[in-house]
Amino acid sequence: MLLIVPALSVNHAWRILAAGICYILFAIGALLPGIYIFCLALLPIDQAAKQRRVRNVIQSLCRFYVQLIQASGLMSYSLEGERPTAISGHLVISNHTMLIDALFVLAYVENLCCVVKASLCHNPFTYLPIKSAGYISNGDPALVERAAEKIAQGENILIFPEGTRNQYDLQLDFKRGAANIAVLSNAPILPIVLCCMPRALGKGQKWYEIPKDKSKIIMQFHSVLQIAQCIDTAEPRTRQYRKLTEWLRDYYYKAVSAVVGS
């Protein structure tokens, strides 16, 4: 029996190799926050200062990775809109199309407290950085209350309303978690729109399943939204949760359609 292997262009083959190199470097780099945390433990500084320093290291690493992805020719990306600086007490949301969506948001938004998968909180390689950075597990029964408390303290919360990567750009199956946090905290919402064309690193795809044509990632920073702009805040809270979830889903549907349809 003959094994038929599809022919790859030189550029396509290089991008598959570049993907492997990037993932190896990512795995190595994931150990750096842990080493840094051990060093921080020796310094006479308070917990809040340590947490902020860990988040700064994570942001620097994420910025390095997204720039490496572009420099290697694996993918290209562009930033659109006014990138926020020195924000506090915001809920940051994004649609979720790729495995590396969080890298882009972490790279370009400061002082983020992420809502992370519960499995990462039990992973021996990610447990210590997640704990030291003060991130919240999506399996925490008090997730909404904890996020609202952190927002009140001036932290920015990052959550993907879909909860997991979508299968296609306009699927956008928003859950209520983001809306619940926004309503409970009355936090301003910073929407970020991420689109990858052609799509890559989607749900169920292997790291080496790279599109023949190089993907371009567009990261859009939209204007901050106040909840009162979106829904009637005089309605019962449970109704506000549902209405805001629907409003945000419709907002993203229009925003993503404008990018992928252009």
TrEMBL record:
One of its GO terms (biological process) is phosphatidic acid biosynthetic process. The chain crosses the membrane at residues 12-45. Pathway: Lipid metabolism. This is 1-acyl-sn-glycerol-3-phosphate acyltransferase. The keyword ATP-binding does not apply. Keywords: Acyltransferase, Membrane, Transferase, Transmembrane, Transmembrane helix. The keyword Transmembrane applies. Residues 90-197 form the Phospholipid/glycerol acyltransferase domain. GO terms for molecular function: 1-acylglycerol-3-phosphate O-acyltransferase activity. It holds the Pfam family Acyltransferase. It comes from the Bacteria.
